[in-house]
Amino acid sequence: MNCSDLRGLSPGPRQIASGVFWAGVNDCVKDLFESLWPIPDGVSYNAYVVVGSEGAAVIDGVDEHLAYEYVEKVREIVGDLGRVKYLVVNHLEPDHHASTPRLLDLARNASVLVSSVGAKIIGSLYRVPEDRIVEVKDGERVDLGGRTLRFVYTPWLHWPETMMTYVEEEGVLFSCDAFGSFGALVRGIFDDEVDLEYYLEEAKRYFSNIVLKYSRNVLEAIDKIEKLGLEIRVLAPSHGPVYRKHVDKVVSLYRDLSQPKLCARATVVYGSMYGRTEEVARAVAETLERSGASVNLVDAARTHPSYSLRLIVESAAVVFVFPTYDASVFPPVREVMNYLYVKQAGRGRLAAILNTFSWGPSAREAVDVLSRAGFQVVEPVVTTKSMLSPEDRKKIEELAERVSSELRRFGSCA
Ligand SMILES: Cc1cc2nc3c(=O)[nH]c(=O)nc-3n(C[C@H](O)[C@H](O)[C@H](O)COP(=O)(O)O)c2cc1C
Ligand SMILES: [Fe+2]
Ligand SMILES: [Fe+2]
User: For 323-331, what is the mean pLDDT?
Assistant: First the structure.
């Protein structure tokens, strides 16, 4: 059964630790997350509820069209919504808080706990009465009666206001977008109930689409959690599975992608209208493969940038092969470059550039955008006419060999 077969249904509330519950929903309606990233298998918005002897706290929420389902789950857990004392806002993006005005209308005693930056910007996103907003400091604790919430500021994951919330007695960390994954939760909610390989693959795509630009902040957050000695028995992100058996797997995955820890892999991103440039791309890919590198060949016109980014985050080198089109870089290849610039994805990675043309090259535009994206551009940049001369073939071969030799600095890929 996949997400659309569920017609938006998701698992009922589940206990994830003593006094801690999952109250999330699946979104099987949206085609594009953030109107950008394909989610053919949907996405989950994981909200949670922590229940103590003196009241309950709701941790984050869901997108607007699923607010009803979420509120009913919270009600099922707490019995009476009047028992909700707090709504914790780890991150203000509407996939987590478009439901907040509705919850606050019904949970009349609930205050909104938000970071200092969050307190400044919440009003720019939602209508929340000011007297219900309470700023919590980094490290501050809130006692629910036998269940203590501790707030840990982890800014810029991937907005400025982000924080995580930790349940001290149970070792549950609500990490919001960090450690998240695309994919609705159709066979269960825990890492040991679902097809974990699938979600870890989708975590790579989620990381590269949403979090990549903030890699340094991911590393800082992981360091901070370790330095604080917060033992994570249950890692509860806001998208994808709840980790109780394989916490280390998803934390290492995010750490490795953020560093970035890379092996000798190259992604060749090409576009070609009439086949000449594709021939160049294939020749480069073959040379790289012969040298022992692991190679992905991506036809940018037929691959959504979401998937190209996913391959690029695991690549030490990206080779761009494109024709000139109306005096510019062929648009589908240019689109990938634009995303790489927006995400500042070049850090720690090499770029090589091969441009075919008939009357004017467009390689300079590529050098410019890729340098601004943080790539180290491998020299020389190769431009050739559409009809390749023997010298052109030599230049192409030489650049591919140069990339191969640069890749030898990286270990071979497992
Ligand atoms: C619609 C279109 C626009 C083009 N614009 C340019 C251009 O502005 N400058 C140029 O030198 N070549 C231009 N070309 C030629 C191609 O860049 C060149 O022939 C290239 O090698 C074609 O590669 P392909 O066979 O992989 O499609 C254009 C070709 C097409 C079809
Ligand atoms: Fe977000
Ligand atoms: Fe999110």
Answer: 98
pTM higher than 0.90, yes or no?
Answer: yes
Atom of ligand 1 nearest to the CA of 360: 11
Instruction: Give the pLDDT of residue 43.
Output: 97
Distance 318 CA to ligand 3 centre (A): 28
Tell which residue, 260, 270, 263, 275, has the closest CA to residue 347.
Answer: 260
For 203, the enclosing helix (H) or strand (E) is: helix 196-206
Q: Which atom of ligand 1 is nearest to the CA of 280?
A: 26
Q: How far apart are CA 221 and CA 217, in angstroms?
A: 6
Two structure tokens written together for 227: 């330095």
- How many Å lie between the centroid of ligand 3 and the Cα of residue 100? 14
From the CA of 73, how far away is ligand 3's center (Å)?
A: 19
The atom number, within ligand 1, closest to the CA of 356 reads: 21
Any residues with Cβ below 6 Å from ligand 1, and which?
272-278, 323-327, 356-360, 386
Chain centroid to Cα 320, Å, comes to 23
Instruction: Tell me what pLDDT residue 353 has.
Output: 98
Ordered DSSP codes for 131-174: GGEEE--TT-EEE-SS-EEEEEE---SSSTT-EEEEETTTTEEE
Confidence class of residue 11 from pLDDT cuts 50, 70 and 90?
Answer: confident
- Ligand 3 (ion): residues with CB under 5 Å are 95, 177
Q: Which amino acid is at 200?
A: L
| Domains of the chain from N-terminus onward | 3-258 (3.60.15.10), 265-404 (3.40.50.360)
Place of tokens 């650049």: 399
Does position 9 have pLDDT exceeding 80, yes or no? Answer: no
Rounded Cα distance, 374 and 340, in Å: 9
Q: How far apart are CA 77 and CA 57, in angstroms?
A: 11
Q: Best of 269, 272, 273 to mutate for ligand 1, by most ligand atoms within 8 A of CB?
A: 273
Closest atom of ligand 1 to CA, residue 273:
27
List pLDDT tens digits, range 53-67. 999 999 999 999 999
DSSP 8-state class, residue 48: E
